[in-house]
Amino acid sequence: MNKDKLYCGIDLHKNFSMVCVMRQDGILVDQKKLQNTGEELKSYFTKRESMECVLEPVDNWGWLSDYLMERGHNVHLANVYKVRLIAESRMKTDQVDAKVLADLLRTGYLPEAYVAPKELRDTRTYLRYRITLTRERARLKNQIKKLLRVENIKDPFKDTFGKKGSEWLRNLKLRSIHNRIKEERMSAIEYYSALISKIDSELKENSKTDENIKLLMTVPGIGKIGAHLIMAEAGDIKRFKYPAKFAGYTGLVSSLRSSADKFYRGHITKQGSAYLRWILVEAAQKAKTADYNLNRFFNRIAFRRGKSIATVALARKLAEICWHILVDHVPYNTNKVCSRFG
Questions:
Q1: What pTM, to 2 d.p., does this model score?
Q2: Contacts of 128 (CB under 8 A, 6+ apart)
Q3: CA dist list (Å): 155 to 200, 209, 311
Q4: Among 35, 93, 118, 136, which lies 20 to 30 A Cα-Cα from 171?
């Protein structure tokens, strides 16, 4: 046992951080509150030799993680859900503080999360930004449709915002204030569409050279955006030892509780990446009509449990299929859906 080895728990907040440093034998070396802005926090870690540091993956963890690694410290991310369960059982409190994090790390009981490298985090941010843009654009479109309903105007086009529909909207005259809102909303829609098109063009170029993206796009329901999002959210797919582990990371698996010798399955856990869960459910909506064997799988569950549960089950199935495709490096094969993936 190396008693001189130091373990640092960091309870990171928006403006400050609680830092706790322990030796391997549990002796407390230092514990203090540091301001995140300015040089106080940075100089604290610059002066110290290499430590094993642990923090929770809150929204601002990336900058601190990068800084610590640049200064030679090893960074661990705590699995928020599992750490809270441990901390609550030991500490009887809702807050997981720096001392608990340091203690769990030094004793080897820290449930760890994946430390995504900076480049991967940037890709995630870019793809999530595209999702935000599309949702904002959809919100603007709904505002215009509401104006039409308010004035009892029937939309003659199936795609209101297609080429012909957009031209009709531009020439449509509404009440003065409604007309102003319509024109301003349409200008905003065009602005968002231009940003989305720029991102899509860049993703299209990447799709030509990335073999994993090409393989994922062979899966029914998964297009260019979905393939990129799955790769970005999953990170290193080999960190999931088997397909059920990857499915668990999507949050699409059923929760499980036991009593005596009986087990009860509940709703899906919704733990893990919400974006990954969302894109797989979107893919399932398309896949259930695009592939014969996936359609059989969907209908078998829908007959017993209903369409909503069947869609979620198919989304989980797609997650497992994606794992096999990326690990085995093979394209989608519909004949293996039932025989290999169950």
A1: 0.86
A2: 275
A3: 29, 42, 31
A4: 136
Whether 9 has a pLDDT exceeding 70, the answer reads yes
Using the structure block, give the residue that is written with the tokens 């200008």: 187
- The owner of tokens 């297609």 is 162
Residues sharing a CB contact under 8 Å with residue 253, sequence separation 6 or more, in sequence order: 244, 247, 268, 269, 316
Q: Taking all residues of the chain, what is their mean pLDDT, rounded to a whole number?
A: 89
**Would you list the DSSP string of 264-322?**
EEEEE---S-HHHHHHHHHHHHHHHHH-HHHHHHHHHHHHHH-HHHHHHHHHHHHHHHH
The dihedral through the CA atoms of 170, 175, 180, 186 has a sign that is negative
Integer angstrom CA distances of residue 280 from 154, 219, 249, 314: 34, 11, 12, 9
Task: Tell which phi-psi region holds residue 112, choosing left (phi > 0), alpha (psi between -120 and 50) or beta.
Answer: beta
* pLDDT tens-digit map of 76-90: 999 887 776 555 555
Q: What is the pLDDT of residue 89?
A: 56
Helix (H/G/I), strand (E/B), else coil: 72: coil
For 113, the 3-state DSSP assignment is strand
Is residue 158 helix, strand or coil? coil
Residues facing residue 54 across a β-bridge: 9, 76
What integer pLDDT is reported at residue 83 of this predicted model? 74
Please, what sign has the CA dihedral across residues 89, 92, 97, 100?
A: negative
Q: Across the strands, what pairs with 264?
A: 257
- Beta-carbon contacts of 197 under 8 Å, excluding residues fewer than 6 positions away, are none
